[in-house]
Design brief:
The complex is a heterodimer of chains A (280) and B (331). With 280 residues, chain A is an all-alpha fold. Helices cover 79% and strands 0% of the residues of chain A. In chain B, helix 3 crosses helix 4 and helix 9 crosses helix 10. Chain B has 331 residues and is an alpha/beta fold. Classes of the chains: A mainly alpha (280), B alpha/beta (331).
Amino acid sequence: MSTTPAARARTQRDEQALHAALAARERPPRPSALSACLTFGWRGMLKIKHVPEQLLDVTITPVLFVLMFTYIFGGAIAGSPSEYLEFLLPGIMVMSVLFTTVYSGVALNTDVTKGVVDRFRSLPISRSAPLVGAVLGDSVRYVLGATVVVVVGVAIGFRPDGGFVGVVAAVALLVVFAFGLAWVFTTLGLLLRTPNAVMNAGFMGIFPLTFLSNVFVEPETLPGWLEAFVDANPISHLVTASRELMAGSASASEIGYVLASAAILAAVFAPLTVRLYRSR
Amino acid sequence: MTQSTLAIEASGLRKAFGETKAVDGVDLAVRTGSVYGILGPNGAGKTTTVRMLATLIRPDAGEARVLGHDIVEDADAVRSVVSLTGQLASVDEDLTGRENLVLIGRLLGYGRAQAKVRASELLDAFELAEAASRLVKNYSGGMRRRLDIAASIVVRPQLMFLDEPTTGLDPRSRNQVWDIVRALVADGTTVLLCTQYLDEADQLADGIAVIDHGRVIAEGTPAQLKASVGSGALHIRLLEPEQRPSAEQVLSRALESSVHLEPDPAALTVGCASPDRAAEAVAELTRSGIDVAGFSLGQPSLDEVFLALTGHPAEEAEEGQEPVAVREDGS
């Protein structure tokens, strides 16, 4: 066994590179909690870049929803597809964005099962940063999902009276609520064992909650007991507020109700998530 | 401030998951600047011990100081001087190798540009430069493991936990990992190494604790440990199986030790204290007219160590870790 001089030189160079890389150097100053959050948000963006398939859920599905419901049920429910579209579109936007909040929990659970969380938890950074950063990063998807729905709606004849400003305001309100709701699913993400379990449990919750709202029909058409539930459902208020904002006539009470529910969800479930994450 | 010469001092560490006592009273004393091996089979409590010391889980009882910081009271201070390379290569599969390192660099406080420079430096040193822009999900096991270790030294820690760094790696990748560990130690990092392989502990560690069912059952230098087991075994293969009975006689006389007949009719194994005596015994066989096809002097395996220390082989205990830390799909 003889090593060629070239191979030996390479090994020596490798060794030097290794020792150079290991040499002690000054430790950088600790990043602020905000900067750590933003870094985790950046990680979310990279994942979107490398795994664009995951955007199918927030793009194709809502498009199908808009088209299917408008043309299949529009005539039956509202007399004509175009009239139903005015009513339906804000609701579909809300529904499809709220569905994607489940993925915040799925993603967190994936990080746990793959061991990535161990790496983050062994770093000297704020323990809530990975969570807050990830949920903040997800808001990019929310905006994307909402935009897709609105664009498709406009393409098939949706003309909101509130104009561009109204639509932007509705999307903003939706993103705030989604941010609050996502914490419910991150909690679930730390309680359940597999990403699939999180997905199933998440949709088992969010599916009925969005359908038992005023997304598709006026609550007055429902039996009394169901109407009562639908009226109390925060998602109904979110849908109403979105419709009003898009129509250019928002009422402060609806917006207040939505913001308060989002705040309550975040206040309960964000600390719970952080606690579960710390004590894992 | 008094500078302790111990990087890790642990006493009476305990952790149970439900009914399973994963760690049942572990004491450790690890000198600064050394490599300390924790040797044991799967489920012996190695990972749980390391996770407690790295502040990922809280002990139920007992206490430990890592580089002078209490692991419960001062967990944050511990985290700023240690790093952990866990059993599951804890890198993000959906990111490229470079992005993984930049991410960690940013989280440790490097600016964008500095983090990139540091990432390139590590990728070069760990022979990952060519794969830097590939997604980690397409990496081989060895590359993933090297990236994982690189991520652990973006800022060089004073103490590094390495949990089974070579399990599942091919021999070449294993040697690369060993070289990295040696370089780390030469540059002043203390390493706590969990392993299932006596060979690995022997190669790298200055001191070893053997752990079984959550307890330390033996402790010492690799040499002491091997001596307590009987230092090794001489494996012989004969050209002619018919000569085995006479070979058995010659060997048991030459080495004054009982000879084990292998299932292979041409092979036998005999306990042997030193390479010199092994060479003598082989020469004795040749002198007696027995044709030797091949021989090797092996180290005692983990099984033999366990057999000698506990009287039972290194069985795989119930995994005593928290459920989600165990990947069950085997992918």
